[in-house]
Amino acid sequence: EVHLVESGGGLVQPGGSLRLSCAASGSTFGTLLMSWGRQAPGKGLEWVSSISGGSGLTYYPESVKGRFTISRDNAKNTLYLQMNSLKTEDTAVYYCAAGGSDCYSGSWCPRGQGTQVTVSS
User: Fold this and answer.
1) Helical H runs in the chain?
2) In this structure, what DSSP letter does residue 52 have?
3) Which residue, among 62, 16, 57, 18, has the nearest Cα to 35 in the 3D structure?
4) Residue 94, phi then psi, degrees to nearest 5
């Protein structure tokens, strides 16, 4: 089973940027569909991006399209989320998971412990 550890969260002003990282264990990382999701205070889990194994096709919901970029470095077993033009409503705990958008809508997936992102002036 893959083990995931997120990092890179913090406090940023509206309009700012952050890059999150997710370090993965295991030799199969490069073949896995990976995703990022988030949970804002008092709300449910929300999917924010996915990237396929192999060709690295990316997928985003409209809420973050054009602002967030998911990427991966298979040699380093690491997943990234570049977040630009951050808004206060992006404040949440961000998680990476081994799987797709269904990881954030009821399906069980290996998931990290999360990293807090706070967007505030």
Assistant:
1) none
2) -
3) 57
4) -105, 135
